[in-house]
Amino acid sequence: MVRVREDGNHVDIYFRLAEDADVIYGIAIMVAEPGETVLVNIVGNISTDDISALGRRFELDELVDLEVAGQ
Q1: What is the pLDDT of residues 16-55, one digit of tens each?
Q2: Distance CA 37, CA 24 (A)
Q3: pLDDT tops 80 at residue 2
Q4: What is the pTM of this model?
């Protein structure tokens, strides 16, 4: 789980991982700020390699070198 609280904004990201932590079964994201809330639920098998590829595509360095605790 990732949780960020800053300037009245709240971001929570939840992952459902496989036992070997090599595959993510789903991601739920909640973003809340005064007057607006956004929920995103992604269901399906997502590899950490897939997330790294998205990071490269959209130039999100934090995702390129993604490491999952427990691997």
Answers
A1: 888 877 788 988 999 999 999 999 998 999 887 888 888 8
A2: 24
A3: no
A4: 0.65
Q: How many domains does the chain have?
A: 1
Q: Find the domain containing 36 and state its range.
A: 2-64
**Closest among 39, 40, 36 to 9, alpha carbons compared:** 36
Residue type for position 18: A
Classify residue 11: in a domain, yes or no: yes
Does 71 fall in a domain?
Answer: no
User: Residue 7 corresponds to which tokens in the numbers above?
Assistant: 């300037």
Average pLDDT over residues 1-23: 83
Give the pair of three-digit tokens for residue 16: 């459902």
Look at residue 25 and tell me if it is in a domain: yes
Three-state secondary structure call for residue 1: coil
Tokens representing 9 are 């904004």
